[in-house]
Structures are given as structure tokens and as C-alpha cells.
Amino acid sequence: MKNKCCKTKTLKVVNIGLQTFAESLQKQGVKVAQINWRPPIKLDKDMEDLLDSLL
Amino acid sequence: MSFKAVVVHENRYADSVTLMGVGDSVKKSAGVLLAEVQMGTPVNLKAMRELGFKIPATTGLNDLIVAIEAEDETALKAAQENVMNCLERKHGADDESFNSLDEVDIADGWNLCQISLPGEFAAAEAEKAINKGMDVFIFSDNVSLEEELHLKQLGEANDVLVMGPDCGVGMFDGVALATMSIVNGGPIGIVGASGSGAQEVACIVEKAGSGISALIGTGGRDLYPQIGGLSMIKGMKRLVEDSATEVIVLVSKLADRNVMDKVLTEADKISKPVVAIFLGGDESLFAKHEVHPAFSLEAAALKALELCGISNSNFCLDRTRVEAIVNKELEKYNENQKYLRGVYCGGTFAEESLIYLNKHNPGMELYCNLNTSYAIQLEDHLHSKGHALIDLGSEEFTLDAPHPVFDPELRLKRFRQEAADPETAVILLDFITAPGVHEDPVLPFAQACAEAIKARKGALTVIASICGSANDPQDITKCGQALIDAGVILTGSNHQSTLLASALAHALDQRR
Fold first, then answer.
1. How far apart are CA B140 and CA B11, in angstroms?
2. Separation in Å, CA of A55 to nearest CA in chain B
């Protein structure tokens, strides 16, 4: 069964982005996991074309 | 002589708000002349190189750069360590973390994914979370309409809620998300395409003695024809299933007529009473529907309370009180004082006031910085004329400065400017409190109001309301009292403030 946040009494949040939002939830007693997110590597056009042709 | 050093932390990310806080903290350290803590975007790299920092050519987007100039080597070393301590402290050792959404197992109870990445990256992460079966709350803006539609259709297929993009408020199980107030629990469930509008309804419900079961934000474009109200309809259905919700309130600005009709048709089918407000809409929208209509945010909240059987008769501002205030204030003004000025941080509040003033004062010349059918657009957003309402949260102000709910400085400056204008008689203010907004949004204004009223020897009317909860960290009781002590007329809602300001503006026009 899927979790539905206004049906369960235990909200558990995965936060991606602003750390302040995670802290605000933690202060309210919510279990929060932060994703150590990194921007995807941006390939230039030539490299993309090369990879496309190889794959 | 000074010492400069650059340390590049490869493949390490921190968000812009965190980096701003760390940078500010390090700049204040003894002996530090300059400190830049930034991700290696082309713009940041260029700016740091222009400041004379030597950054390796291989540095890129995924790298975090700490560039410091200090008076001596000891200060430089201490500052470098301070940066890393600040960043480590942000990631507390006991906090749970994942390297990507792929590592998250919903069997462990993770049920909501909150995303506030730069817009270009938000949709991809949202898609992963939806596919896992999590509800998603997307604070990020700059997500395309096509991506929004895709995410919301995917949400339908996976039976999850997609709140946003550009969603600022939400509340589940008594927990406030993003910039939402910590409103008391109660029987009223809200679905809002207008964030501050939905928050105002929730806060009025609390002020009138009750509370909310949930608040589901949809993002401001949900009722666009391309999206078709997918999240509003989904949110409404979620509240039907929620046993704590007795009455549902739908909140939106005036939207596409067909989509509003579609939403109301869905609302007609559900088993719980529904109140709907489309700010600026009229009775004709509701003609063929069973939904309870409301035409102000306050009226929507009070109708919902009434449907729950909760008395709210003491909440409204009655005509006798309005007349008494108008008569008292009018005696104070000199002949040069002719105009009302609104200095807003909440866009929905500015719009609510514009709609009311426009409707109740036909022929009134009303100016605004926004491009809206309710007022004449100001030629120069930095200078008001006539009766004017300014939304300091609109793009022309936020391009160079943080939004006024996060940093009140710019709005404070504009307030002082309006208060010093000899033609100003009345100033209208809104305040928003919540865990996610500025820690002290009201008290600096209370001080500025006291100074402005004193400078005008009492001949200035300031009217204000606070959209907030008694549970917010800013302590709205203390904030409200500070405003009253400063000589401000504090009302229960932006609607009440507007009603009063409108009566004063009308009386000022009559006097001319």
C-alpha cells in the first residue's frame, strides 16, 4: 500500500535542496533525510553526439 | 599586504541559501577582508576571478569554491576552517542522508519528497520520487508547463499528489512545509492554487477558534488550461478520503473559466461540503453548481467554519466600528494628505485589496506596480502616485533582492518612503509569519511605524494584518501588540484591513 501523507500520522520527508526547509521540519519533530544532491555533469554538444553515436 | 587563497572542494554541492549564510558568517571573522563561498557556475567563477582569485581552469559546476582574502595567514587559515565547520554543522552528524533518491526505500516510511532545487533540475528529481510512489512538494519555480503537465499526469498514474511547481505552502499531520504557518489542527481541509491565499484562509480559521486538517498547495498554474486543475481535483479527492476533514475549501485566483467549471463539477460530486473562492470571480461562476461560493478569503474561512457548526460572529469588522475609525482618522489629516498606499509582501494580498478597492470604489483612480486589470500600472515602480498598492514580492523587486518574506529590508525602505510622502494619509501593510520565512518580519516595522507616526505628529494611519499562527516561532501575539503599541490599527485579516482602507480612501476622495 502506498504511503499517503494526510492519511498517515508519521510524515517522513526526503528533502532535496534548501537545507533551511529540512531544519524547519526537524524543529517540528519530523523525520527528514537530506539528499546530498549534485548537479548532473553537463556534457558539451560534441561529447553528447559522440556518446550517442557510440551507444 | 593581504593574503589570498582558494580551496576547491571537488564534486561537493551546497544550496545557495546555505552558502549565503556561511559566506556572511565568514566575512564577519576577525582579519577577513573578503570571502566568497560559491558553487562553480560560470557566473560565480567569472566574479571570483574578477576579484583577483586564481581559480584552476578545471573547476566546474559540481565544485564548491572557498575563496578568502585575509590580513594575515593565521586569519586566512582560521577562516578556511570556519567555512568547513559551518558546512559540516549544516549536515549534522546524526541526520539521515542519501546520495540520491535511488537509495530511498519507501518501505521505510518515506512518504513525501520536498524539492527546492534550481528549476532546471527539479522535474527530473520529482519524476523519480513520483515513480517511487511518494507525494511530491515542489517549491522550485522555472519548471516548464510541459514538465508540470507530465509530472501531474504521472502523479495520477501513480496515485500520488504533485504539489507545485512553485508551491510555497503545505500542511500535513500538523506539520508545516516550506513557508506555511503552523496552524492548529481542526476539521477544515484546504486545497490552494494561491499559496498565501490558502494560508490566509487557514490562519483566519485558527484566529476564529478552529483549525485545519491539511493544506494541499497545487502551484499557481494548476488551473491553467494546459494543466486542467489536475492537482486541485486530486487534492480534493485526497481530502474526501481523509477522516479528519469535514469541510473542504478550494482557493484560487480567477483562472481559466473552463477549468474552474471542471473543478466545481468535480466538487459537486463529492460527499463533503465544499466552499470555493476564485479571487475576483463573481456569482455567475457558481450558478450551476452546489458548491458554497465565497468572494473574499475571510468569507471562505468563515463559511467553512459555519458549515462545521463553529460560531464565528465575533470575527468580522462591523460597520459601526469602521465608521468610528474613519471619522476619527479623518480629523487628523492636513489638506495635502490625500492618498492610500499599500506596501505588500504577499502578492495575493495585494490582489485581494485591488479587487475590493476596484469593486467598491467605482471611478477611483488606483495605481499598482503590477500589470493588472484592477488598476493603472505605475510608470515607475519605485515611485507611487495617487492611491497606489505596491507588491514588493513581484519580479521587478526580487530580481536584485530577496523576496520580502525572506528579507524585509527593501519593504521597510519603501514603507519609510511612502510614510515620508506628504500626500500619504493611509498605509496598508500585510505580514506573513511561518517557520520558513524571516525570523523577525514584524518588529522592525513596528519600530518604523512608531517613528513615522511620531514624525507626522500622529497624522498618519497605518493599518495592518498578520497572516500567521500562534504556533509560529515569531510569536504573533507579541508582534501584534508591538504594532498596536506603535499606533497601528491591527485587523484580523487582509480583507478587514482593505475594507477599512477603502472606507478611508473613499472619504479622502469625497473631501477633495
1. 22
2. 22
